[in-house]
TrEMBL record:
Protein family: Belongs to the outer membrane factor (OMF) (TC 1.B.17) family.
Keyword Metal-binding: no
Pfam families: OEP
Xref: InterPro entries: OMP_efflux (IPR003423), TolC-like (IPR051906)
UniProt keyword annotations, A-Z: Cell outer membrane, Coiled coil, Membrane, Signal, Transmembrane, Transmembrane beta strand, Transport
Lipid metabolism listed as a keyword: no
Localization per Swiss-Prot or TrEMBL: Cell outer membrane
GO terms for cellular component: cell outer membrane; efflux pump complex
Coiled coil stretches, renumbered: 172-216
GO molecular function: efflux transmembrane transporter activity; porin activity
Domain of life: Bacteria
Stated name of the protein: TolC family protein
């Protein structure tokens, strides 16, 4: 019995150990690499490329020999009757003799090989497969860029909530300590009650903000997990530090270096759209060309009044046929002309769309560069402001407990410090996310 209990508890221990997933650790770069393989949108984009390759072969195969077989079995429940003149059977003129032709059952097996010799639509179709594949590849690149940006944003937001929670815990602990000291001073009659109440208000605000940050941290982790392609409650650990990550994302070359609009993914997608519209014009024009194909057919037919087709002595009659089919479009009542004109109109629209995309990209890049430059400047400014706010708050705290400064002065200095702390966190996040936005627009990751 004792051995059974030991085995039972050992199994329980092992099962409980496996039921708790070990947390995965991610640096930002590791998170990006992981998401590009496991994010659901990224995986579907890769599947689209695979589907495009299959469609390419599907189109190629249309122009290759096609072999089809056909087996047809017929059993006349009641055979059709034909009428022949009665004179044939020695009857009176004007009379008819009913007669049944053929056998009650027959089986026909045949095979047909067809081959396109010339078809303008097929030639255009082959050209379009290359463009369609390029469209799928560019769409996948666009998706990967968006996934990368989403990971950077989610990772940065999660670090902000982590760091914000730590700062608020530190502020809360400091305030609690100060409140205890001030309460003792007040109880000894050396401080006004208002000073204690002011500190309680500040502490209450900090505790409320801390509770909110704790909730935000959970949501941030869930959002990051979803972007990674994990279950939202999967345990993960982030190894990068917010301030270090911010310093790594300072890159003035992105602001000053020249760039090529043609290298941006949005321009390439718009160019793909124009190329596809050009092929649609060619497709409509090719429909006016003749189409030539050849075919070869061969088969055997068996006849019997009973089902004897599996017998060795069944007689089979063979047949074969070779032919060429030439289809020449002559007149379509203006339908082909209208289709061609419509395709040309869509091509003109795609050319304008390409020009519009080029101008929009230039504007978006200029806007993103300005936003990134401001984020860098604001980061430097907020860092200095935080250092100043820390010194001011420390001085006011010392003055307050020495009886030189009022509780109002201390509260103002504390609020100024807490605001500076939050502003600095936001400034660091802005540097990271603004750089990611600019990199996505310029497609610098894939160059």
């Amino acid at each position: 019995m004792k051995k059974k209990l030991i085995v039972f508890f050992s199994l329980v221990f092992v099962i409980s150990g496996y039921s708790q997933e070990a947390p995965q650790t991610f640096s930002l770069n590791q998170a990006i690499d992981f998401a590009l393989e496991n994010n659901r949108n990224a995986k579907n984009a890769k599947r689209d490329i695979e589907a495009a390759y299959k469609q390419k072969w599907e189109t190629i195969a249309i122009g290759l020999p096609q072999l089809n077989a056909n087996i047809e079995y017929q059993n006349f429940i009641k055979q059709p009757v034909s009428l022949l003149p009665g004179e044939i059977a020695g009857g009176e003129p004007g009379t008819f003799v009913p007669i049944t032709f053929g056998t009650k059952q027959n089986l026909n097996a045949s095979a047909t090989v067809t081959q396109k010799i010339f078809d303008g639509t097929y030639i255009v179709g082959l050209q379009s497969t290359k463009v369609f594949l390029e469209i799928s590849k560019n769409a996948a690149i666009k998706t990967d860029l968006e996934v990368r940006k989403a990971i950077i944003n989610a990772y940065g937001n999660t670090l902000v909530t982590e760091e914000g929670e730590k700062i608020l815990i530190e502020n809360r602990n400091t305030l609690r300590k100060n409140l205890d000291e001030l309460t003792k001073i007040y109880e000894n009659g050396l401080e006004e009650e208002e000073s204690v109440e002011q500190l309680k208000i500040t502490l209450s605000d900090i505790e409320s903000a801390l509770n909110n940050y704790t909730r935000l941290k959970k949501v941030s982790y869930q959002m990051l997990n979803m972007t990674l392609g994990l279950d939202i409650d999967h345990p993960i650990i982030l190894t990068d530090n917010l301030e270090t990550l911010t310093a790594q994302n300072v890159d003035l070359h992105l602001i000053n270096d020249p760039y090529s609009v043609e290298n941006t993914i949005d321009y390439q997608i718009a160019e793909n759209n124009k190329e596809s519209k050009e092929l649609l014009v060619k497709l409509e024009q090719s429909k006016a060309l003749p189409a030539l194909s050849a075919f070869l057919n061969g088969g055997y037919t068996g006849n019997s009044n009973t089902f004897t087709f599996t017998n060795r002595d069944q007689i089979w009659f063979g047949s074969s046929l070779f032919g060429v089919n030439l289809s020449i479009p002559i007149f379509s009542s203006g339908m082909r002309g209208a289709s061609t004109q419509r395709a040309k109109i869509n091509l003109e629209k795609s050319i304008d769309d390409l020009m519009e995309t080029e101008q929009r990209i230039k504007l978006d890049v200029a806007t993103a560069r300005s936003a990134y430059q401001f984020a860098l400047e604001d980061y430097s400014n907020k860092k200095e402001n935080l250092d100043l706010a820390k010194r001011i708050e420390a001085k006011n705290e010392t003055k307050f407990f020495e009886g030189i400064a009022s509780s109002f002065d201390l509260r103002q200095a504390q609020i100024q410090l807490y605001t500076a702390q939050q502003d600095f966190l936001k400034a660091m996040l802005d540097v990271i996310t603004r750089k990611a936005e600019l990199e996505t627009l310029l497609n610098t990751v894939n160059q």
